[in-house]
Amino acid sequence: MKNFIKWFGIIALVAVIGFSMAACSEGGSNPRNGGNPVSGGSANLIGTWTNVLGSQFIFTSSNCTYKMGGAWVLYNGPYTVSGNTITLNPSYASANIENVIRIVNNSTISHQSIEYYKGR
Q: Which pLDDT value is given to residue 32?
């Protein structure tokens, strides 16, 4: 019985360490750890950011398109980046949307408390 408890403890410890390593980021900047995700200007934003419902922000070097459900375009126009904040120009919106997007890290942005992930 003592051996069983000993081996169970070792297996549990290995599992905890393994899951902890799997949950860690792949490196790079992370504002939660003092990093700056926009150190290259808007270059890190370029690409498609998708949430779990299929809505997307598509950034080019000078333009942003926001599609709800992957189809309805709610915004298509310029954007600015300052620190960890992306600001959309509300005059280019086809609906009343929140014009501030928060940069969480290099692979996540947040709009109205919904997270969008790059490249999904």
A: 34
